[in-house]
Amino acid sequence: MKNVTITLDEDVLARARVEAAKQGKSLSRFVSETVEMKLGRKRSQADVVADVLKGPKWKLGGGPLPKRDEIYEERLRRHERPDLPAAGGRSLEGGDRDRMD
User: Fold this and answer.
1) Within a domain: residue 24?
2) How far apart are the C-alpha atoms of 16 and 58, rounded to whole Å?
3) Sequence-ordered list of residues with C-beta below 8 angstroms from that of 64, at least 6 positions apart, any chain
4) Which of 19, 38, 85, 100 is most buried, judged by most C-beta within 10 A?
5) Is the pLDDT of residue 20 over 70?
6) pLDDT tens-digit readout, 66-84
7) Whole-number pLDDT of residue 59
8) What is the model's pLDDT at position 19?
9) How many domains does the chain have?
10) How many CB atoms sit inside 10 A of residue 8's CB?
11) E-strand spans in 21-67?
């Protein structure tokens, strides 16, 4: 950490000291954390990767992103053909269960 000399108006300094004392912090720590909040904390590479792996934070189309099963379910429905019999027209009832071509 580096030391920095700053110039503050007396009123601002007095208010900063009072606020630091209320929070149980030194004036130096209070100023440092206040500046950090304003600028944003530098994040580690691990934090950035964790955020990326959580997925997108935006909403497309105004709602949550679809789940994987929902995507494939829709694709399968699109290709359904009600005019075709299920399982190629054969049923595996009775003795046909043992014989699968």
Assistant:
1) yes
2) 37
3) none
4) 19
5) yes
6) 778 877 776 666 666 666 6
7) 57
8) 95
9) 1
10) 12
11) none
Q: How big is the chain, counted in residues? A: 101
Q: In whole angstroms, what is the distance from residue 80 CA to residue 72 CA? A: 12
32 and 39 in contact (C-beta within 8 Å)? no
pLDDT for 11 beyond 70? yes
- The phi, psi pair for 80, rounded to 5°, reads -70, 145
**Is there a contact between 28 and 39 (Cβ–Cβ < 8 Å)?**
no
For range 4-14, the mean pLDDT: 94
Identify the domain containing residue 36 by its residue range: 10-49
Which is it for the CA torsion 56, 59, 60, 64, positive or negative? Answer: positive
CB-CB contact of 100 with 87 (8 Å): no
